[in-house]
Specification:
Length: about 240
């Protein structure tokens, strides 16, 4: 092997070369020491092998590969966001409470659901797995207001709150009308070529829209009969 600070070259006299093969249940490592071909008594018996019984004609590795340091992780091509264009993360689910309804001046709770997921595929002719992890949620409430949070939110019941109380993702509408709500999830990607995860700088967006919220006004009135008893009564 090369001395500290020196680079070894495959095939050089007195150089060690090796290979590692992943069998799926373990890693087989082999190596061969190459001696000089010069004749003389000094070389007698100096042809070493990782297996004393191995035939001199046997290949050290299943297939030829460049010289490398045993135990070092194999280099892979650098990956950028643009390289992941063929990997599309899942769109978030979008809901609200009350379901599809809001009240002027009171919080309407909007909830988005998205989770970490993995997509297998091929990149640069390598088998690869791309992992998408939600890092931010951008809510557009349809009235010109928006909010970016680190959470997709939860129902009032899951939060242990009463209805029409503020949450991290709720919104208060000032006017009556029907509003189209959407949410965009920003995913942080990572890739694995089978030997560990590599974080990719940047985020990938996935958007869900089309959730309509009808915002109404609520007025209180004293009546002497219910709407069942008097369907034409105030507020019925």
């Amino acid at each position: 092997p090369a001395a500290a600070g020196e680079a070894s070259v495959c095939g050089n006299a007195n150089a060690w070369t090796g290979c590692a093969e992943n069998t799926g249940s373990g890693v087989d490592i082999g190596g061969t020491k190459h001696k000089s071909d010069s004749s003389g008594d000094n070389n007698s018996g100096d042809n070493y092998s990782s297996d004393d019984e191995a035939d001199a004609d046997d290949d050290t590795c299943p297939s030829p590969r460049p010289c490398y340091e045993v135990g070092m992780r194999e280099d892979h091509p650098a990956v950028t966001l643009s390289d992941l264009a063929s990997f599309t993360p899942a769109k978030p689910n979008l809901s609200g409470e009350p379901d599809g309804v809001g009240v002027v001046g009171m919080p309407t709770n909007i909830v988005a659901r998205a989770g970490t997921h993995e997509i297998p595929g091929t990149l640069f002719e390598y088998d690869v797995v791309v992992r998408f992890t939600p890092s931010a949620f951008r809510f557009d409430y349809g009235d010109g207001s928006s909010r970016t949070t680190s959470t997709g939110g939860s129902s009032w019941e899951a939060l242990g709150q009463t209805e029409f109380t503020p949450t991290a993702t709720s919104h208060v509408y000032a006017d009556r009308g029907t509003y189209d709500v959407s949410v965009t999830v920003l995913y942080s990607p990572a890739v694995s070529f089978g030997d560990g995860w590599i974080d990719i700088p940047g985020t990938v967006a996935a958007m869900t829209g089309g959730y309509g919220v009808r915002v109404v006004e609520v007025h209180t009135a004293l009546v002497d009969k219910t709407c069942i008893e008097n369907p034409a009564g105030p507020g019925c």
